[in-house]
User: What shape does this take?
Amino acid sequence: MKHYVKSRFLITDSIGFYIARARNSLQMDMDAALKTLGVNAPQMGVLLSIANRGTATPFELSKDLVIDTGLMTRMLDKLETHGWLKRERSLEDRRVVNLYLTEAGERMSAELAKIVPDVLNTRLQTFTKEEFEEFRRLLKKFTAA
Assistant: This one.
């Protein structure tokens, strides 16, 4: 089913516009909440993704977080400089680089896990439980395409 008609299309009333606006608003909120830790929202996503997995490769993170590999490399360099992650070549396949959190990275991830839910809950405070579940379901459906 087509939901837009070219002759009446308004970018400011499109799903893409609202998704971008929501993402930017959430990132600004997250960046403000994380500022004192010296971490930004994209870096938080990388750290918590590795924390949840236990280990990851740059390719896996790029795919999961929808970040191009060049930006991912620069982000990993910065996180490694801060001492929050380390890279190790796979013993089975030297082409593969595995990413692990350092002890400092694990502590940082624990701090992040305390802050992130509050930021999300503030943004979602006017949603009912049913609205929240439906919103999440629809976003999953939309991003699965």
In short: The two ends are 14 Å apart (CA to CA). The chain has six helices and two strands. The CA atoms of residues 89 and 117 lie 33 Å apart.
